[in-house]
């Protein structure tokens, strides 16, 4: 059982989707659509607002208008184009959001504390949150019937409101709930790099209990992915790969050991 996370930064998914379609292992795909969302919001006159949290993490301020755009980009274009291509390649794909069937339920954080320069501010009416519970029943039903679930944020809050949740975190939680053997996170880098500016500095193996020793090499999303990978291993997933989605055969190469692997 595999869980694959397709990063929203990947521009050309066809080699990866072709490789996925040829793989006979049962799997769940989780994908993002950050690039599509930013482009759509800009075209619709509501450009993305990226903010820095009190802890120094960069995130998207998701107000009500942005959440409408989020649903268009994630649940609409990105999800259905992936499903379309996989079905053309012979896989019986089904597109879902993490709201459907209550797959991912979480807590909305309507007030977002940010830092602008030396000042702390609070932004209200944010539609972001964190995952608290995964119900894999619908995913198991689809897998047992031979379908390939293609899953994307948003999740649903306890109050029934759509919430923007981190895609890597969603993939990790789904992999843990399904007791996946491997979680593979595909992005536009060859793996976790000792020097983010030099792709030749890839670190091929990192024990989960030593992740903190390596986390300082990463910046932004790379560091977040590494920490999520370590938590996934601690949650019982055998191996987590940080893999290059730009290769000609990304999944085949990843399963053969390419990329960065976090293991117990």
Task: Explain how this protein is built.
There is one protein chain. The protein has 264 residues and is of the alpha/beta class. It has one domain (2-33, 64-103, 134-263): Carbamate kinase (3-Layer(aba) Sandwich). It contains 8 helices and 16 strands. The protein has helices at residues 14-22, 34-43, 64-88, 137-144, 167-177, 211-215, 221-234, 250-255, and strands at residues 2-6, 27-31, 50-52, 58-60, 93-97, 104-108, 112-116, 119-123, 129-134, 148-152, 155-157, 162-163, 182-187, 205-207, 239-244, 260-263. It has an 8-stranded mixed β-sheet with strand order 5-10-2-1-13-15-16-14, with helices on both faces. It has a 4-stranded mixed β-sheet with strand order 9-6-11-12. Strands 3-4 form a two-stranded antiparallel ribbon. Strand 3 (50-52) and strand 4 form a beta hairpin. Helix 2 crosses helix 3 (64-88) and helix 5 (167-177) packs parallel to helix 7. The longest helix has 25 residues, at 64-88. The two termini are 18 Å apart.
Order of helices and strands: EHEHEEHEEEEEHEEEHEEHHEHE
The largest β sheet comes out as: 8 strands, mixed
Can you list the strand order of the major beta sheet?
5-10-2-1-13-15-16-14
Give the uncertain stretches in residue-range form: none
Counting structural domains, the number is 1
What overall form do the CA principal axes indicate?
globular
CATH homologous superfamily assignment: Acetylglutamate kinase-like
What is the overall pLDDT average? 94
- Label the structural class: alpha/beta
The CATH topology: Carbamate kinase
Report the sheet-strand fraction.
Answer: 25-35%
Q: What is the total tally of β strands?
A: 16
Rg calc: 18 Å
CATH architecture: 3-Layer(aba) Sandwich
Number of helices: 8
């Amino acid at each position: 059982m595999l869980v694959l996370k397709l990063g929203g930064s990947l521009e050309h998914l066809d080699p990866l989707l072709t490789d996925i379609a040829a793989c006979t292992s049962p799997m769940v795909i989780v994908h993002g659509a950050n690039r599509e969302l930013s482009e759509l919001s800009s075209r619709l006159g509501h450009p993305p607002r990226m903010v820095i949290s009190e802890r120094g993490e960069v995130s998207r301020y998701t107000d009500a208008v942005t959440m409408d755009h989020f649903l268009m980009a994630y649940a609409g274009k990105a999800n259905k184009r992936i499903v379309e291509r996989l079905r053309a390649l012979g896989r019986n794909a089904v597109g879902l959001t993490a709201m459907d069937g209550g797959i991912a339920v979480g807590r909305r954080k309507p007030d977002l504390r940010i830092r602008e320069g030396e000042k702390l501010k609070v932004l209200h009416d944010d539609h972001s949150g964190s995952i608290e519970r995964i119900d894999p029943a619908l995913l198991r039903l689809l897998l047992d019937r031979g379908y390939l679930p293609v899953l994307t944020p948003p999740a649903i809050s306890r109050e029934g409101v759509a919430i923007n949740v981190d895609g890597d975190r969603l993939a990790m939680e789904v992999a843990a709930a399904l007791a996946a053997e491997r979680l593979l996170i595909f992005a536009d880098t060859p793996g976790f790099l000792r020097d983010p500016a030099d792709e030749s500095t890839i670190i091929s193996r990192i024990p989960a209990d030593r992740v903190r020793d390596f986390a300082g090499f990463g910046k932004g999303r790379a560091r977040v992915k590494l920490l999520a990978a370590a938590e996934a291993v601690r949650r019982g997933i055998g191996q987590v790969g940080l893999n290059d989605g730009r290769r000609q055969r990304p999944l085949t190469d990843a399963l053969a050991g390419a990329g960065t692997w976090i293991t117990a």
